[in-house]
Amino acid sequence: MTKTTRIAIGSVFVGLAVLAIKTLAWAMTGSVALLSDALESIVNVATALAALFAVQVAQRPPDANHPFGHHKAEFFSAVLEGVLIVLAALFILREAWDGFRTPVPLTAPWQGLGVNILASVLNGLWAFVLLRRGRRLRSPALQADGAHLWTDVASSVGVTIGVAAAVLTGWLWLDPALAALVAVNILWSGWRVISASLSGLMDEAVPESELAELRAIIAAHAEGAVEAHDLRTRQAGRASFVEFHLVVPGEMSVNDAHAICDRIEAAVRAARDGVTVTIHVEPEHKAKHSGIVVL
């Protein structure tokens, strides 16, 4: 079992634990705002399950139907997470509207808030783990899950403060108003998750800083070649693809040209895990006198 899979499984159990704690907090108080917090935790569990499935699919090796691998499965999971987040927000808005029309006094509010704070601390710790490990393992699914949990933590803090204010002031309308604010925050979170995932599905290039690093590596390890041009990159989760044209002297043998390509590929792979390098060798009359100059 890989590290990514273990973390994804951990997300499911943490999500279930947080859901149980937040549901208890809502049952103790009857707060619409705390209900909205609990409903978001249901989405957390669903997205954790989706992330686990996507991570397992993404780790499958290339096959005849998917010669470039299954890495983009994680992006589909992230899009699904975004859609579920939006649906949860709409459901919370409906509950908030009902709370506005028929406000309900809160019962045992301080005990319920204490329980809810416990769930928020657990969520915050796990969100930190997901974001840190997700970046290290270059997993869009884990990063999307972590980003969503951070949003959940922020919502929970706001709900806790607001419910406390509602109890102290006696303004019952504060409870559904906070639930509505939580819903708006969740909607924004869902949109960010979806937009980030769509960038990956559209074969977005690696960041400019990584492109600069690639150019430097090619220039430093292409000794014997004339130039490199038409550098293109794309990324799919933990995998990335690099391709370019390498111009060599017309009289150079195939063996010598292949040796240069091997040297460049080895250097690129040493600098970036999970990269596939494709090099098209051309004779010197194909030079564009632009692109990467060989050092």
From TrEMBL:
Enumerate the spans annotated as Cation efflux protein cytoplasmic domain. Answer: 207-284
Localized where?
Answer: Membrane
**Phylogenetic classification of the source organism:** Bacteria, Pseudomonadati, Pseudomonadota, Alphaproteobacteria, Rhodobacterales
TM helices/strands, residue ranges: 7-28, 34-55, 75-93, 113-131, 152-171
Respond yes or no to whether keyword Chaperone is given for this record: no
**InterPro entries attached here?**
Cation_efflux, Cation_efflux_CTD, Cation_efflux_CTD_sf, Cation_efflux_TM, Cation_efflux_TMD_sf, CDF_Transporter
Name listed for the protein in its UniProt record: Cation diffusion facilitator family transporter
Which keywords does this Swiss-Prot/TrEMBL entry list? Membrane, Transmembrane, Transmembrane helix, Transport
